[in-house]
Amino acid sequence: MLVLTLPEPVRVRSRRPLTLRLEVPAAERAVFWRVLVPSGALFSLFDGGALSLIPVFLVRTLGVDNYALVGAAWTWAVGLRSLSGLVPGAPAAATLSHPSAE
Q: Cβ distance 96 to 35 under 8 Å?
């Protein structure tokens, strides 16, 4: 209800079109294609593969009828994937340096 009593911050709205250009800066394109695109593809492969096949495997092959256990297995897989970034010595995207910075 408080929102209804607040005054409008913009009284006159501009009608000019908003154009957004999203791009990777030229200096960063090599790192983008070499590191980020393959890691994004692997991330998608894991999500699409493991997270959709774990419940199917548990229900069809192992005969698990308790969907709470199926959800727990799926949550376990997501949790392990999230914690894998905290493994000491594993390369992380934040630790990669640009070739021109060396």
A: yes
Are 58 and 69 contacting, i.e. CB atoms less than 8 angstroms apart? yes
In sequence order, the 6+-apart residues with CB closer than 8 A to the CB of 36 are 93
Cα separation, 99 vs 36, whole angstroms? 15
How far is residue 8's CA from residue 10's CA, in Å, rounded to a whole number?
6
Residue 58: CB atoms within 10 Å: 20
Report DSSP letters for 70-100, one per residue: HHHHHHHHHHHHHHGGGSTT---GGG---GG
pLDDT in tens, the chain (102 residues): 787 888 877 777 777 777 878 887 888 888 878 887 888 888 778 777 777 787 888 888 888 888 888 888 878 877 777 777 676 665 554 444 445 544
| Placement of tokens 């005969």 in the chain | 63
